[in-house]
Amino acid sequence: MRLSIIIIALAGLTLVHYADSQDLPPYRKPKHYPNRHRANAVKSAFQVSWDGYYQYAFPHDSLRPVNNTYEDDRNGWGASAVDAFSTALIMGNGKVVSQILEYIPTINFNQTDTQVSLFETTIRYLGGLLSAYDLITGPLHGNSSSVKVSAILKQAKRLADNLKVAFYTPSGIPDNQLNFNPPRRVGSSTNGIATIGTLVLEWTRLSDLTGDPEYALLAQRAEEYLLQPRPALGEPFPGLLGTNVDIDTGLFVDGSGGWGAGDDSFYEYLIKMYLYDPTRFKRYSERWVKAADSSIRYLVSHPTSRPDLTFLAMWENRTLNFVSQHLACFSAGNFILGGLTLDEPSYVRFGLDLVDGCYATYSSTLTGIGPEIFRWQDDSLPLNASYNKPPPANQTGFYETAGFWITNAGYVLRPEVIESYYYAYRATGNPLYQEWAWEAFTAINATCRIGSGYSSIKNVNKVNGGGFADFQESFWFAEVLKYSYLIFAEDAAWQVQADHSNEFVFNTEAHPIRIYGGRKGGRGRKRGGGGWERGGWGESFKGREQRAENWTRRRGWGRG
Question: What whole-number distance in Å separates Cα of residue 52 and Cα of residue 45?
């Protein structure tokens, strides 16, 4: 049944007061204010999505909600079920957890009729299984039988044993494409930095849980080629890399990249590995700092029509390309997490600026949802430069108001903007980010709800989304619904913390992985630089608090 947007929207309009950041002593986390009405609305959307999937698609991978059929887009192993596992656990949805627990031991990871992606299988299946195991044996201990829980880790190991043939190459750089029955490489000549560098968290965690070092060594050996890139063309800016690496030699074959598809989660995992274990992965954090500093120095761009907005350009060697993606909006949250982890408030402030830009991509469209790909004209370069062209004539008016124009108007149930709102809120306690997340969730709920679930849409800047693609992505369960829930949920062990008390770190599919040894994680490299002290990021907050006040007044809402 379609959720009532009117009822949901009335559930939590009052903004509560929050402490000024200048009152926060070092390492003290800001006050957070749960909203049970909104959290329950997200739970309801999860249940609608699961019920449709379970009735019409389970145990296949994904639901086609318009026609009430299924798609085996991820090897037929039940991708939506595994992706939904950690979210159901966090939401306390016992019935769904039981259904998935019963299913996990039955998955035959030896058998598939379709080509296997090492990257997608790692982040969805391996990450989902390890996360569920960490949650059930950690903060949710005692919720399930030991036999069922041991089956989760057993299946994770079984899957990795089939996947590890990908690393059996001359260089140790894995082939991302595999065939099973039996497991073997397809024989690709190159692999990308995201599909190489987004394995190390899950494979290291598997080693730490099983005591078998092989899994971690395989992923970390491949990562070394990205930590020490060769030749020079592969690192056009310090810490910022090209995209593709020769599988036989480990050498970069191009110098084009960005914080978007093909590159994104390599940078994401550098700081997350340090959070996972700062002793073993200090070098990873140093590499992240180089990438972050170069991004701020070389990639920052402001649109000619909206110089108040901040975007990160992509690059082709050292030439900038003023284009970005919904996917790239994760970078805002990653900068915030990096700033919290390293006690560097400048990274947090920059991440908040990127959040503002991502918000504009949502607030400017007819549906209130951001597009897949967008462009802008940079305000600091000659306007007649060949790589700094103005918008097409049919989008000039839109560009003047929005600060970007749309080149791919689809929305495939992506989480990255809401993900960054979540990190912004957990870092600051500013309810503005809860409001933005609620705007996004209600817009998605109003536009993408169809038939037995939720579907990707074709055009975010047309009424009703321009039609449905009839596909409910598995990461809708893992990411969009999880981040939408967590920003309104009570504090818990898996929530991101601003005071170095993290117990979990999220993989790129939003599956929470327990920090090494169960430790609370990761003091930063230094305590200075402002930190949480008076004068650190207080001035930035002062302006943001006023902006939150103005934003709510425009809507006639009070700060209770």
Answer: 11
Contact 320, 375 (CB under 8 A): no
SS (H, E, C) 73-111: CCCCCCHHHHHHHHHHHHHCCHHHHHHHHHHHHHCCCCC
pLDDT recorded at residue 39: 98
Query: Residue 125 to residues 110, 146, 198, 388, 407: CA-CA distances in angstroms?
Result: 14, 21, 13, 41, 32
Listed in sequence order, the residues at least 6 apart from 514 whose beta carbon sits closer than 8 Å to its beta carbon are 134, 135, 138, 205, 503, 504
Tens digits of per-residue pLDDT, 110-140?
999 999 999 999 999 999 999 999 999 999 9
Q: Give the angle subtended at the CA of 19 by the CAs of 14 and 24, to the nearest 5°.
A: 155
Catalytic residue at 416?
Answer: yes
Best CA proximity match to 227, nearest among 287, 311, 276: 287
**Does the annotation flag 508 for ligand binding?**
yes
**What are the pLDDT digits (tens) for 265-277?**
999 999 999 999 9
Check if 372 is active-site. yes
Question: In 298-391, which residue ranges form alpha helices assigned H by DSSP?
Answer: 330-342, 345-363
Reply yes or no on whether 120 is catalytic. yes
Token code pair at residue 233: 């063309």
Q: How many other C-beta atoms are found inside a 10 Å radius of the C-beta of residue 68? A: 15
User: Which member of 134, 264, 343, 435 is catalytic?
Assistant: 264
Report d(CA 367, CA 358) in Å as an integer: 15
What ranges make up the beta strands (E) of 100-207?
116-117, 177-179, 184-185, 190-192
> Containing H/E element for 441?
helix 431-448
Instruction: With CA atoms as reference, report the closest residue to 372 among 469, 507, 269.
Output: 469
List, in order of start, the domains of the chain with CATH numbers: 20-541 (1.50.10.10)
In sequence order, which residues have a C-beta less than 8 Å from that of residue 434 and are 6 or more positions away? 33, 35, 38, 421, 425, 487, 488
Q: Calculate mean pLDDT across residues 388-405.
A: 97
Q: What is the rounded CA–CA span in Å between residue 50 and residue 124?
A: 17
Q: Which of 372, 419, 470, 545 is catalytic?
A: 372
Query: Above 90 in pLDDT, residue 211?
Result: yes
